[in-house]
């Protein structure tokens, strides 16, 4: 069973390798239908590929020591260089202004946030103070109530509701 699985793996790997370049190389070396690309056909293929996919590449590359040839484009660039620089300067100034506006906005938001936090803290402190005073008042009233109850417990005969205290 294991031998069968191993044979199947070998056959399948020979039939369709995962890497297509490896398959092409294998086909060339084994001579299946002859070599796919000869050296000259490969050069032709490269040229065709260049024509197809790189139409905007310059066909002429100057050497480093060779001076740049005057073309209409370089002439136009030379004539309009000041204009281009002016545009760049304007764009830079605009970008700085935008950045400044953004910074001002950020500062404003930060100040707003801080003021809000301060207001919140102040409200909390006032609330705590009032709460403390309220609790203090409640405690005072409770103690007074306890004092009164203590008095009535010691002298149950004394009537609390009547104006004149009568003893029976």
Automatic annotation (TrEMBL):
Residues 62-168 are annotated as: Disordered. Residues 143-156 have a biased composition (Basic residues). Keywords: Signal. Residues 1-15 form the signal peptide. Residues 63-124, 131-142 have a biased composition (Basic and acidic residues). The keyword Signal applies. It comes from the Eukaryota. The keyword Cytoplasm does not apply. This is R domain-containing protein. It comes from Diploscapter pachys. The lineage of its organism: Eukaryota, Metazoa, Ecdysozoa, Nematoda, Chromadorea.
